[in-house]
Amino acid sequence: MAFRGWKWLLLLGRQNTFAKAWRSRRGGPSLRWKRCCHWSASKSLDPEVRAFLEENTEVTSSGHLTPEIRLRLLTPRCRFWREKPDLWPYGDPFWAIYWPGGQALSRYILDNPRVVKGRSVLDLGSGCGATAIAAVMSGASQVLANDIDPIAGMAMILNCELNHLNPFPITIKNIINSEAGNWDLIVLGDMFYDEQLADGLHHWLRKCIRIQQTEVLIGDPGRHQFLSHSIHSQLHKVIEYSLPEYTRQENNGLTSSIVWSYQPSNSLENC
Ligand SMILES: C[S@@+](CC[C@H](N)C(=O)[O-])C[C@H]1O[C@@H](n2cnc3c(N)ncnc32)[C@H](O)[C@@H]1O
After folding, report:
1. Which of 115, 171, 222, 257 has the most CB atoms less than 10 A away?
2. HSE-up of 70 (CA within 13 Å, CB side)?
3. Cα-to-centroid distance, 155 and ligand 1 (Å)
4. Ligand 1 centroid – CA 206 distance (Å)
5. Chain segment 196-255, per-residue pLDDT in tens
6. In the chain, at which residue ranges do the beta strands (DSSP E only) sit?
7. CA 187 to ligand 1 center in whole angstroms
8. Looking at the DSSP assignment, which residues form a beta bridge with residue 52?
9. Is 168 near ligand 1, meaning CB less than 6 Å away?
10. 102 C-alpha to center of ligand 1: Å?
11. Is the shortest distance between the CB of 204 and ligand 1 below 6 Å?
């Protein structure tokens, strides 16, 4: 199938070679604030970036599992759905899609607020920030969103605004391989799409569980890289959601998305 616009991103996990080629050809995101690692709610958005994001996304609350959350997303009505990706001035916009893994996690949190209520939550690989937003809406005492794409951080601030929330702290530092953070709960939606990334995540999550007794919830719609990874044998199924028709069509035949609890049997071993 020939993909001309950003819709090829939806081949998550199957497009990595292509994605890497784009990145090496275009270089990384060129933003004057790209070195900024930790934003606070008061950090204002670069007006040019804000205007670009507002012009090139659509506000939507339908077609996904959490209609109570409004998001700016890339939809078939947006110019870059079909426009040549090399006209896009930033890195690949994974944040502009609400992935099935994140949808399942957010639905689960909104329906079961006790999972996050009064707890500190890290949303790792936040993308559009929907799962972090669900955690705030459900009463988490502290939420940190982490995504290595600085534009994702900007999009999350816009998405908080849309949902009448004060933006939560956002970090764009790559925290995998760093010290285990002291979080009650780490949530990861659709993060196991690349083998190397999956290995890094697995190692770091085990460390967090061993050192901090962190609880870990993973949302995934059954991607090959996830099902074939060694972490899969140490998961307990929490809940499965049937995906809305629009998300099914967007995701080339995926029909459901599962929330898993990661409980390594050997979490006491040295990592
Ligand atoms: C497939 S998207 C999932 C986004 C969101 N969790 C959801 O389910 O809608 C994966 C996201 O992870 C981010 N990402 C990739 N590697 C990362 C890393 N090492 N640390 C933090 N975020 C990362 C990407 O920038 C992207 O926004």
Report:
1. 257
2. 11
3. 13
4. 19
5. 999 999 999 999 999 999 999 999 999 999 999 999 999 999 999 999 999 999 888 899
6. 38-39, 58-60, 71-73, 120-124, 142-146, 170-171, 185-189, 215-220, 235-242, 256-262
7. 11
8. none
9. no
10. 10
11. no
Q: 86: buried, middle or exposed (CB in 10 Å: 19+, 13-18, 0-12)? A: exposed
Other Cβ atoms within 10 Å of 256 Cβ, number? 13
* Number of C-beta neighbours around residue 72 at 10 A: 22
134 lines ligand 1 (CB under 6 A): no
What are the chain's domains? 100-262 (3.40.50.150)
**Digit-coded pLDDT (tens) for 36-84:** 345 554 457 889 999 999 999 999 999 999 999 999 999 999 999 888 8
AA identity, residue 264: P
Write out the H or E segment, with its range, that includes residue 107: helix 100-111
